[in-house]
Model the fold of this input.
Amino acid sequence: MPIAVTIRDVPEDVRDALGRYAQQQGQSLQAFLLALLTRQARFAWNQGILAAVGRELEAGGGAGITAPDAAHVLAAARAERDSQPFAAGDME
Done:
């Protein structure tokens, strides 16, 4: 269920610059900011995947010859991510 997020004390020039940029992109400020926040949350999710892979590699002494191709692993993880609703716990 979507919730409202409020950001207080945004300088007027910052709000105006973001509004102009959103308008140039053919978006409302709200749509632009939602896309920006979503992109940032997904970036954080990807960082979590990379950290988990790093921990697994360190624990196992590195990748062996039979390790799957990294591009396939990332593609599968992204497909899984995109098929599920975003949750705050995904960023950890």
